[in-house]
Design brief:
Elements (H helix, E strand, L loop, with lengths): L3 E3 L21 H5 L4 E9 L9 E2 L4 E2 L5 H14 L2 E6 L8 H10 L8 H9 L3 E3 L9 H8 L6 E2 L3 E3 L16 E9 L5 E11 L4 H4 L1 H4 L3 E3 L2 H14 L4 E6 L16 H5 L6 E4 L5 E2 L10 E2 L4 E2 L2 E6 L5 E12 L2 E13 L1 E4 L2 E4 L5 H18 L2 E5 L3 E2 L9 H17 L10 E5 L15 E2 L2 E4 H7 L5 E8 H11 L13 E2 L12 E3 L2 E4 L21 E6 L2 E2 L5 E7 H4 L13 E8 H12 L1 E2 L7 E3 L6 E6 L14 E7 L5 E6 L1
Length: 658
């Protein structure tokens, strides 16, 4: 297979002046490059998740922290700072907000249609993109229709049609593994020279678990590192002067393991790689998230010694890698580099201040889709007797998680009614998706009592997961909960205002299992780390675990309603994987919640208090949540909570007496 060789893009490769007309300061590489030296700027977006407008469809209001229409303004400015620039996307652009679901589930894609996120990207004149795992969420046929509307190529070197070959180079790949952009680059003396820029892409092989219903029997995914080891030299052989990797994965470990989800560190170390753009983790690099990460140099902006960048998510930043290239004969090499992730907003205490306005041309291209999405998400499906919110979802049983579990139990009980599992008790595992964290102090579910609309259901359940059921033992239920309890730091008895939440543990892995009762003993260390490794094998945080008022029988069998991500092994929960699955639903969890609300007409989402922290006399802990939490503090049962002042970055701080 040979790579596509692309001619000069739709726009001139040489940067012009900014759209604003403001004075622009050239990057030092552009200002100081000598003859036979040239400045090349690589601009990156990643994890856009269909966020075109600076608008939160769940809250039905503008939001200055998101939107590629805002990022577009930075693109104009940044192109003008560099003599030569390219713009790439790192994947996860197709799913992630109601606009994506509206197109996938309501409106559909007809032949010749252009998806709104592609309209925005075409307007910005992207040069290339790779695929993220969420591109596969709606199936291959839908993805193909979306990609067909793009005015730029897509690359992915580790997903093959059918089965994998013995040699990665023999894989019948789903799309081109790489492209080579044939461009003209201007050096410091104003002379123009040809340059061939190779771009190669990779996606986590876990797509085969996360979207098995769409992909099984159709494609297979190869280990990222092994694919890169085979294909990067091929890009060089095809004549690329420099090779840039579009890696839709996080930094990952420094030691190789099969089928790593996050493999950027190891890919960066492959000979022939000049620079790497990353994503998937929804983090910012260079940035404080990577202060003490092995193999990462925040100051130099390198991963495993190679220039790298990760541009946040939802358009929050534009990633920049600046390369000073030097020409030797007919070839180019990197002699210096810098990296930066430039934000579209800044947060001063609780105030979000936008740093740029939206680019009108981008918004205009998607205006009709935006308006249709707002109409779609405001369609009522039922009523709720009480508010649905997630402000205290990490510290107490919570109504936003409760309603998900109620819907899952309702659905799975019916689906298994005539099966061999009909007599087994049905439990439900559900986690809070919007619980602050990296999403900021406004990133919480907050649905008032009254009408429940589609946007509210999407707010409760962010992802288009499908419902699945697993059969596990009582002992495995306990280990499931032990893994979830990694959400919390260990607390010494008698401690005053210890920090409760482990910031490295994602809220979507904090499963609450309904149908059993239990308490979490914070004096014990976490049994499992975030990768599911038993780091304290003898620890037991889950105490007083009961079913039907009696200690749970370790040998008893239970059906647990969950989602395809968890059932397929997502989150690395011990002993939970495809071999435990007994039912794979064709319906998404969100559709099930909608159907449950329609069936009930009026729902009562009050939490049943089936879990709590074990008492620790004389001990207090602190946690941060959204400022609006104070409106609901009186409703939280089973835990003593009081306000404790201001948190960091706009959060409010609360104290729990254990």
């Amino acid at each position: 297979m040979t790579a596509k060789s692309l001619a000069v893009s739709r726009r001139a490769f040489l940067a012009g002046t900014a759209a604003t007309g403001a004075a622009i300061m050239l990057h030092p590489y552009s200002a100081r490059a000598q003859a036979n030296q040239a400045h090349l700027r690589i601009m990156e977006t990643t994890d856009l998740h269909v966020h075109v407008f600076p608008y939160d469809y769940y809250a039905d209001r503008e939001n200055d922290t998101m939107g590629v229409a805002r990022t577009a303004t930075i693109v104009d400015e940044i192109r003008a700072e560099a003599t030569n620039a390219i713009l790439v996307d790192n994947g996860d652009f197709l799913q992630g907000n109601p606009m994506g679901d509206y197109y996938a589930y309501e409106r559909g894609m007809n032949e010749g249609d252009v998806h709104p996120i592609i309209k925005a990207m075409n307007t910005l004149e992207f040069d290339c993109s790779t695929l993220g795992n969420h591109e596969f969420n709606y199936g291959l046929e839908f993805m193909d229709k979306v990609l067909a509307g793009a005015n730029f190529p897509f690359v992915c070197a580790n997903v093959a049609n059918g089965t994998l070959a013995e040699n990665p180079l023999d894989d019948d790949l789903l799309m081109e593994p790489f492209v080579i952009l044939d461009r003209t680059i201007t050096d410091g003396a104003g002379e123009e020279h040809p340059i061939r820029i190779g771009l190669i892409g990779f996606v986590p092989p876990q797509i085969m678990n996360w979207d098995v219903r769409h992909l099984e029997g159709k494609v297979e995914a190869r280990d990222i590192v092994r694919a890169a080891e085979a294909w990067v030299p091929k890009v060089r052989e095809e004549g690329a002067d420099i090779v840039i990797v579009l890696s839709h994965s996080g930094v990952g470990p420094t030691e190789y393991r099969d089928n790593l989800e996050n493999a950027a560190y190891l890919v960066a170390g492959i000979e022939g790689v000049d620079a790497i753009v990353t994503g998937h983790s929804h983090l910012v690099f260079p940035g404080s998230d990577f202060d003490d990460v092995d193999g990462v140099d925040n100051e130099a902006g390198t991963i495993n010694g190679k220039p790298a960048v990760m541009a946040g998510f939802w358009g929050s930043h534009l990633g920049l890698i600046d390369l000073l290239l030097e020409r030797d004969g007919d070839s180019w090499s990197v002699v210096s580099h810098t990296s930066e992730a430039r934000p579209i907003y800044e947060r001063v205490e609780r105030q979000v201040n936008p740093l740029v306005e939206s680019k009108a041309e981008v918004e205009d291209a998607v205006r009709e889709d935006h308006d249709a999405t707002i109409e779609y998400v405001n369609t009522p499906v039922g009523q709720s007797e009480a508010p649905l919110h997630s402000y205290f979802a990490l510290v107490a049983d919570d109504p936003s998680v409760q309603i998900v579990s109620q819907a899952q139990v309702w659905y799975i009980t019916d689906m298994l009614a005539n099966s061999e599992y009909a007599d087994l008790p049905v439990l439900s595992a559900a986690a809070p998706f919007k619980a602050g964290g990296r999403g900021g102090p406004d990133y919480y579910t907050d649905v008032p009592a009254g009408d429940v609309a589609i946007r509210n259901v999407a707010d409760l359940y962010l992802y288009p997961n499908t419902v699945q059921a697993v059969v596990v033992t009582g002992a495995q239920v306990k280990e499931w909960l032990e893994m979830s309890a990694g959400m919390f730091n260990q607390v010494e008895p008698g401690a005053s205002d210890a920090v409760l939440i482990n910031p490295d543990f994602p809220s979507y892995n904090f499963d609450v299992i309904d149908g059993v009762t239990y308490r979490i003993d914070l004096s014990q260390p976490a049994k499992y780390d975030s990768d599911g490794a038993a780091v304290n094998a003898d620890s037991s945080r889950i105490v007083d675990l009961e079913f039907d008022g009696q200690p749970i029988d370790p040998e008893a069998r239970f059906v647990v309603a969950t989602n395809n991500y968890r059932a397929s092994g997502g989150g690395n929960f011990p002993e939970i994987g495809p071999d435990k699955v007994v039912y794979e639903a064709p319906d998404t969890n969100r559709d099930v919640i909608v159907r449950y609300i329609v069936e009930e007409g009026t729902i009562n989402p009050a939490a049943d208090g089936n879990w709590a922290f074990a008492p620790m006399e004389g001990t207090t802990v602190l946690f941060d949540t959204g400022p609006k939490a104070r409106d609901f503090i009186a409703e939280v049962e089973g835990v003593s909570i009081e306000e404790a002042g201001e948190g960091d970055n706009g959060f409010a701080r609360y104290r729990i007496t254990l």
